[in-house]
């Protein structure tokens, strides 16, 4: 009887641990899904910039977004950021692309993405920048860009 009771306890404990494994996806799966979501947000951003569609760009920006451009200009707030983006797109026409190098999660709901931002077909050589994007999840669980840092590599 004791063996049977012990076996029953072992089975219950095993089921308890296995149910936790089955009902909760592992962290890597969550990070991969969120990484994909962030990549989609960034692709929407660059598509909006390419199309000069400020409403599409605004849709992925946090209201308190700030941007530091490669020329050292600070753009604080969504209106200043999008007005500057509009001026920049007019001054630097060309095909924009974003090659995302990495996505890191700093804590739940906060991510940092590093990318190469290229504008081809400009007057002169292609513009190649390194960009870092900080994204946060808003109250609706949607990722938004809260900061953009662009820098021109030297050397």
Task: Report on this structure.
This protein is α+β, with helices and mostly antiparallel strands. The chain has a single domain, classed as Nuclear Transport Factor 2, Chain: A (Roll), CATH 3.10.450.50. It is built from four helices and six strands, in the order αααββαββββ. The protein has a six-stranded mixed β-sheet. β4 and β5 (127-137) form a beta hairpin. α2 (27-51) packs antiparallel against α3. The longest helix is centred in the N-terminal third of the chain and has 25 residues, at 27-51. It starts with a helix and ends with a strand.
Number of individual domains: 1
The poorly predicted ranges are 13-26
Q: Within the largest sheet, what's the order of strands?
A: 2-1-6-5-4-3
State the helix count.
4
CATH architecture: Roll
Mean of the pLDDT scores? 84
End-to-end distance: 78 Å
Radius of gyration, in Å, reads 22 Å
């Amino acid at each position: 009887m004791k063996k049977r009771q012990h076996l029953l306890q072992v089975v219950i404990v095993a089921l308890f641990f296995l149910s936790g494994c089955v009902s909760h996806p592992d962290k890597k799966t969550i990070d991969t899904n969120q990484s994909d979501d962030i990549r989609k947000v960034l692709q929407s951003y660059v598509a909006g910039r390419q199309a000069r569609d400020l409403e599409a760009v605004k849709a992925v920006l946090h209201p308190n977004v700030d941007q530091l451009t490669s020329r050292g200009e600070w753009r604080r707030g969504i209106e200043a950021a999008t007005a500057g983006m509009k001026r920049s797109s007019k001054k630097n026409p060309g095909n924009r692309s974003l090659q995302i190098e990495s996505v890191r999660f700093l804590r739940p709901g906060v991510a940092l993405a590093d990318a190469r931002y290229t504008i081809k077909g400009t007057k002169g050589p292609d513009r190649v920048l390194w960009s870092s994007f900080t994204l946060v999840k808003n109250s609706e669980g949607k990722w938004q860009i809260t900061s953009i840092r662009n820098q021109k590599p030297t050397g």
